[in-house]
Structure prediction request, 535 residues.
Amino acid sequence: MAEAGNTARDAPLLTVRDLNAWYGESHVLHGMTFDVMKGEVVTLLGRNGAGKTTTMRSIMGILRKRQGSVIYGGKETVGLSSNMIAQLGIAYCPEERGIFSSLSVRENLTLPPVLRPGGLSLEEIYELFPRLLERGASQGTKLSGGEQQMLAIARILRTGAELLLLDEPTEGLAPVIVQHIGEIIRTLRRRGFTVLLVEQNFHFAATVADRHYVVEHGHVIDMIPNSALEANKEKLTTYLGV
Amino acid sequence: MFELLGVPPQALFGQLLLGLINGAFYALLSLGLAVIFGMLNVINFTHGAQYMMGAFAAWMLLQYAGLPFWVALVVAPLIIGLTGIIVERLLLSRLYHLDHLYGLLLTFGLALIFEGLFRKQFGSSGLPYQNPLPGGVNLGFMFLPWYRGFIVMFSLVVCLGTWFLIERTKLGAYLRAATENPQLVQAFGINVPRMITLTYGFGVALAGLAGVLAAPIYSVTPVMGANLIIVVFAVVVIGGMGSILGSIVTGFGLGIVEGFTKVFYPEASNTVIFIIMAIVLMIRPAGLFGTQR
Prediction:
């Protein structure tokens, strides 16, 4: 991992060690182990059902039945409830986006409370996502799929969270919107956010990420720095079965 | 004196007022049920008993502490709300991961226990509570007792206030969001279990408030809630389970319908709400204001 990232960014913000998780009786994560350095954009790549979303939900504490260690900013979070984990500075954008239909766009955007300093202001968010200002009074779920995805990302930028968990933000979206989301993730990286990204589309992942973890059967089987992606393309294709 | 549809106006407006008063209670009680159901997904069968406890709390505050009605109007709902919070923390919160039926059984059992305790302590015959606003005004077409007018206005204000709180404020946005997706709202850093507790406390306090309002006009008895709550559940079914605006509009509306039925066809006045319920269930099973969930 020495070649990953530059030296200014190599303080681990998130350390996941031997993380196990269960949905009811079914054991889904079998010892996930990886790190995310401060300021990095890291992806979890893998096939459907490999455990990427479960990893996100376990880190966030939404999935309570978990064992092992998730250390964020020096603090053990396994055992904490999700609202306490959010207070530490982790924010989650779920795969299904989670836009509330009984709330307007503006209400959706301002719903997550500001928990820590350092988040984006509403003005800055509207600068990044002008459509959300125009559609402020609309019902949240009346937005197009792409707009809903923007809203789901935008609303966790205000809270002061430093680590953003983005679960397949490009899923089902048109190429031009995928490009736009790529630009946004690069902007967030420049602004000092740390991003853990779940992706199936490694062509997209290659345009935004510093490193990639390959997940299979609930644990990490490989780590590929973005610079080495071309050299490992064949291996990756086998992993992902594409 | 003129007549409307063969009915003297005094009788017509008198029944209209009675209907409005009943409607005020239907609205307050079904509103509390709607708030609780929306957030907890629990049909609170203790609601009638909590209404009764509100009336008894007002009576006890007067008897034992000498506190007048206007003080009880604030204090009694707080006390009843607090008992609700205890019930939620101690019992209800342990059932959320189980089938809805368990919440229903628990709250129904609690209602029987509360009513039994009050019957043992105070007997089944009613206790009197003095009208805090005696007298009234003759409007020409009818006589309006001050206190009854107050009930209708006050209940309307409380209902609209609750609607505003839930539909138009930041706190209400949290409630609406948590109704849709509690896990995600909690992952945004909000203490959802505490919000659920307070919501139950608030819904129960509304029942207690209705009980205080009822004390001066209905006799304060352990079964006063059991009798009323059956009609209120019909109102909730007609309005649509969990709809805030629905419970307010349906509550007042059905009170008025009931009042008019008393004028034009008294034999049906006790059943008209259930007939409407049957018709609504046939045409719109989710209720007039409800959405399928």
Chain B is about 70% helix and 0% strand. Chain B has one domain: 9-283.
